[in-house]
Amino acid sequence: MIRDITIGQYYPSNSVLHRLDPRVKLIGTFIFIVSLFMFNTLYGYIVVALFLGAVIKLSKVPFRFIARGMKAIVVLMLFMMFFNLFFTPGNTIFELWIIKVTDNGLRQAVFMGIRLIFLILGSSLMTFTTTPNQLTDGLEKIMRPLNHIKVPVHEISMMMSIALRFIPILLEETDKIMKAQMARGADFESGGVLKRAKSLIPLLVPLFVSAFRRANDLAMAMEARCYRGGDGRTKMKPLRYQGKDYAAYACVLVYFAAVIALGIFGDQLF
Amino acid sequence: MQIIFDKVNYIYSDGTAFSRHAIKDISFTINKGEFIGLIGHTGSGKSTLIQHMNGLIKATDGRIYFNGQDIYEKNYNLRSLRSKVGLVFQYPEHQLFETTVFKDVVFGPANLGLDKLECELRAYEALKMVGIGDDLLDASPFELSGGQKRRVAIAGVLAMRPEVLILDEPTAGLDPRGRDDILEKIAYLHRESGMTIILVTHSMEDIANYADRLFVMNRGELVMQDKAKAVFSHYKELEKMHLAAPQVTYVMNALRDQGFQVSTDATTVEEARKELLGLLQR
Ligand SMILES: Nc1ncnc2c1ncn2[C@@H]1O[C@H](COP(=O)(O)OP(=O)(O)O)[C@@H](O)[C@H]1O
Ligand SMILES: [Mg+2]
Q1: Which chain A residues are closer than 8 Å to B142 by Cβ?
Q2: What is the best residue among B10, B46, B48, B241 to mutate for testing ligand 1's pocket, by most ligand atoms within 8 Å of CB?
Q3: Taking CB atoms and an 8 Å cutoff, what residues of chain A touch B92?
Q4: Near ion ligand 2, which residues have CB within 5 Å?
Q5: What is the CATH number of the domain that holds B28?
Q6: Scanning every residue of chain A, which has its alpha carbon at the shortest distance from the alpha carbon of B155?
Q7: ipTM for the predicted complex
Q8: pTM of the model
Q9: Interval A94-112: pLDDT, tens
Q10: Are residue B1 and residue B70 in the same domain, yes or no?
Q11: Are residues A6 and A74 in the same domain?
Q12: What are the start-end ranges of the H helices in chain A?
């Protein structure tokens, strides 16, 4: 069940998007997210939708796979739309007891919902097309200047990539231990809150023990290979911009300019 | 006790880009008191298959009957099934969690809703069976050696007094002494209490010594199910599946190729010894 959440997963494929430098994707995603809040016009939404559509097409990630991930955030979206719908002042459209729906509220609810979908689609496209290792590599390179003010950039990114790598391992381990305890008659599903919380002990203790054991093994393996932090460390595959990366930057900038122009000159929706 | 599989299929992450058809059209019958050896290359679906036997995994397609009852029927009591079909996972020592060895073994029977005395009696008996001495009962399970931990974990399943005991590579990662120890205990259980045993292993020697019948898995399919001798006579085919026959089978075949009049169906050292002595006396 946990495996059904596709947000944040990597989807292996060999599209142009997969082959882009991770820095382009990180910065591109950042610009995309900023752009979502730079306009308030109908054309703005159309431009964003077209841009996203093109990127999804380029990524070769099946739409069904993306859509399944979106299901997981439906609750969050309804929650947000609910607040927008009922708590935005404006001209009342209809009234029921203490509930008032206003024209502004309705518009905001719909458009905020769309924006949220865009935001999540955009950022999950980044993780669909970039492996966690590439992501941290990219982040490390972007943050490199912070080294001058004594931020341990390499160490932070190393911790991040280890943490990301451990997520699927721990999920698998949880699954295994859960089954092993169920084979001994454990019941994780029935009973009240207290009983359920207690039933987690046979799951959590082995999980922690195993996480510590793995962390220990990993530390040992790293030391055995003389790992000693970022100073003077070189990379097997250093990140270098290529033609397609510059082209991608150009596309993102054109898109950004278009959105801003529409934000300034287009008809305001509200 | 009887387990019947009828065309069982299982697909991991069915319907996604990562779907994997782990076992395909598996059918067999296992009867009371049998000792089954399940062999197959890594990734051939052995672990997936055995998790169906106590309902931990629900088949994507196919039927499973335990004592004639369909375990996927609506009101079938899966928890009671799990107490009758004991499953010891690979590296079972990773599931220990209690503060003492004894308490950990009590966990299984306690989940069956038995009274305290009965639980403790069963736990004690199970620990005796796997050869854990009284001095270790109050030790923390995390302080034990690898072999001891493994035996405690097996006792944790035995304490539920299952009718069938399934063990997934119970000797993986143990030293030869610990390995023989555990196998001897399993064979003893089979002999003395007539418990049905299903043993997943990579060691052909072990299997040849103990199992009545062999199941051979290859790429998710059950390709052979026969007496050990019959299976090992196909050692050329086994090699194609990255498996092998016991070493004595190779020795006997080599002797035969050299022109000695020996039968090649010996699978254990003891059988080979008899055969060779017979040859010398002729
Ligand atoms: N939890 C899982 N999710 C997805 N695929 C799995 C999972 N467990 C096993 N598999 C796949 O199913 C196949 C059979 O695995 P398994 O039953 O563990 O084989 P064996 O025990 O014979 O080594 C393998 O190809 C494996 O990669
Ligand atoms: Mg296995």
Answers
A1: 209
A2: B48
A3: 180
A4: B 47
A5: 3.40.50.300
A6: A184
A7: 0.90
A8: 0.81
A9: 776 766 777 777 888 888 8
A10: yes
A11: yes
A12: 16-19, 22-35, 42-59, 63-71, 74-86, 103-129, 132-143, 153-183, 193-199, 201-224, 243-265
